[in-house]
Amino acid sequence: MNFRVLAGMPTSETEMVLAARFEELPSTDLVAIRNSGTALIDAAGEFPELDVVLIHQDLGPASVLDTIRDLSHRHPQLAILLMSPSLDPETFTVAMEAGARGVLSADSGMSELESRIAKAAEWSRTLRRHLESAAHELPASGVRGRIVTVSGAKGGVGTTTCAVHLAMAAARRDRVVCLVDLDLQSGDLPAFLNLQHRRSITDLVDASDDISPGMLAETLYVDPRGPHVLLAPEHGERGEDVNARAARRILSALRSRYELVIVDCGSNMNEATAMAVELADSAVVTVTPDVPALRGAQRLMAMWERLQIRAHDNVHSLVTRHSRKNEIQPDFLRQLLGTKVLRTPVPAAYRALEPGENNGDPTKVTDEGLRKAFARLAAELDLFSAPSAPGTGGRSGGTTPSGGMSPMAAALSSRSGSSPSTKDVSGFLGSPSSGTGASSPGSGPGGHGGWSTGPSGRGLGG
């Protein structure tokens, strides 16, 4: 396959010159030319299997170095070459520091242009193969990973913030982590992680009966900071395509390839999030210490219990925006909710979160109190431990009846006009630990009478 190149040229004149030169390069395809940094960044996410991005030094309106930084952050597998009228050491240094792969003269000859593009493209393809290989690796032979869902009592209680920082904390401890955005109508992980990716969970729906490792590698975004990411659809209406059966298959595929799958369920329940909560080894509800959030949490957990998705006493509540000055303190909150409350609350450090959220980079949150809180929460939820091998008595995911749907999923499916599946969909990819036997409704960690995971239901310390 020819090397695929995207270019950013500031004027129509430079665009025409470059296009004419590429017509004489048989081994290279110039897929598009854009005339602004913003358009170039957008195009990088539109064209599959790009190898090289050429950027002219005069490309605007923003600084070309800012454009290079943004591109290298969003698409670390792309080789970026800066075309500059001058090749002085300072230009070379600042370009490399921004994330460029190299600098070449704007009036380079044909042989030099072809050679530099070929070398950059080979580097890009080697890195891409490395990232895809990392996405294919099983966490351990025959071991299923753990699924942890994070749901919000209502909007604005920090659900996505907690899911992101828990995933980052586990990745820092060398766990193989996948972060899933199952807030299908309003998922916002791209803003929290400053990423653009043309694929989402809906690309796996049609193939949900046979999800290959290649499909996962193509659909997931490999974040160089740690977790791999499966995004919600860009257009919220596409979220309706992810029904309970598709959600089960997709999450089972991820569980077979990752040690830990953290699912951001948002604050709205649907077929997909109901299935995720039922499959989960641990279900967490984020709640702020105020009456509207407490009522929202009570309604959500009561609905889970009525519909036999998850027993009330098998849910962990996570307190966010905690302060000693709050009128409602953790002990009282535990009594009201009647559920396990994680001992570590997330402090009300709004400004300390701003650097991470405004820059789309969780690593910029340097507040020691917040970092320690998320690390302690991850430890309480046992996110740092490797999954246990089959037959060792370790935790593994819960099972649902052989029909593959809970009463909630069946009820929602009947409303939408589809029929519940009667096929046994356990044991995706032939994992020996996938629990192929049918179980009675409500068994396992997601139903009544199931064993619980994580810490005991003690009040929050301090």
- Which secondary-structure class do the elements indicate? alpha/beta
Strand arrangement within the widest β-sheet reads 8-9-7-10-6-11-12-13
Run of helices and strands: EHEHEHEHEHEHEHHEEHEHEHEHEHHH
Helix content: 25-40%
User: Looking at the structure, what is the overall shape?
Assistant: elongated
Low-confidence stretches: 135-142, 390-406, 408-462
Main sheet overview:
8 strands, mixed
Mean pLDDT over the residues: 76
Give me the count of strands.
13
Radius of gyration from the alpha-carbon trace, in angstroms: 24 Å
Beta strand %: 5-15%
Report how far apart the termini are. 61 Å
Count every helix, treating DSSP H or I runs of 4 or more residues as helices: 15
Quick structural summary:
The chain has 462 residues and is α/β, with parallel strands linked by helices. Helices cover 37% and strands 14% of the residues. It has helices at 12-22, 37-44, 64-74, 89-98, 110-136, 159-172, 189-193, 213-219, 244-255, 271-279, 291-306, 330-337, 350-359, 368-380, 407-416, and strands spanning 3-8, 28-34, 52-56, 79-84, 102-105, 146-152, 177-181, 221-222, 228-230, 260-266, 282-287, 316-319, 340-341.
